[in-house]
Amino acid sequence: GVPGGTAPADRGTQRGCCGPSKPPASRGGGGRGGGSPAGGPRAPPRARPPAPAPAATFTAAPREDLRAPLPVVAAAVAGGSVPLLDSRSAEQFEGKAKSPQARVPGTLPGAVLIENGAFYSAAEKRFLPADAVKALADRAGTGNATITFCNTGHLASVSWFALSEVAGIDGVRLYDGSMSEWTADPARPVKNGPAA
């Protein structure tokens, strides 16, 4: 049964949900309408519990082509030809603020910024349409084969989804190590960092 609750409204909800505690006195047979003995509608049959699902083994098949591991990112930074998209705030991109996960403030050399919230419509509470996401990417100078990053990979996964799955841009990859991994080695260069 449904718990009675403590407030009068709770108890009223219980009655409204489950009907009166005992049926009214019968006013005659159910008739040809097939109603209950009290003349009201017949209660729906109880749903049977679902049958247990058979045991199965799930085998993950990670898509390595969707990730940009550290060596790939290091080559992109050194080469300067692969678009690098910072998904964090402008303050972190500019080195004015730092996440606890990053050793130093700043961003990847050659990176451009599209703050994560730019991909959403606040009014419609959803991602922007594909053409609007594509326009954001075009204005920022990103395109095919963009690598998205943030501090730990979670914000970058949203940017990856917006570019790859919403806008349909080819070859977008996620640097899941992001600035926490990149800044762990002091030898790696950082734009807008302490020495900038």
Cα shape: elongated
Helix residue percentage = 25-40%
Q: State the distance separating the first and last CA atoms.
A: 67 Å
CA-atom Rg in angstroms: 29 Å
> Which stretches are poorly predicted, pLDDT < 50 over at least 5 residues?
1-31
Assembly annotation: single chain
What's the number of helices? 6
Protein model, in words:
- Helices cover about 30% and strands about 10% of the residues.
- By secondary structure, it is an alpha/beta fold.
Quick take:
The protein has 196 residues and is of the alpha/beta class.
What would the keywords be for this entry?
disordered N terminus, two-stranded antiparallel ribbon, 196 residues, four-stranded parallel β-sheet, alpha/beta, 6 strands, elongated, 8% strand
Write the layout of secondary structure elements.
Layout: H1 8-18, H2 70-79, E1 84-86, H3 90-93, E2 111-113, E3 120-121, E4 126-127, H4 130-140, E5 147-149, H5 154-166, E6 173-174, H6 178-182
Parallel strand pairs: 1-2, 1-5, 5-6
Antiparallel strand pairs: 3-4
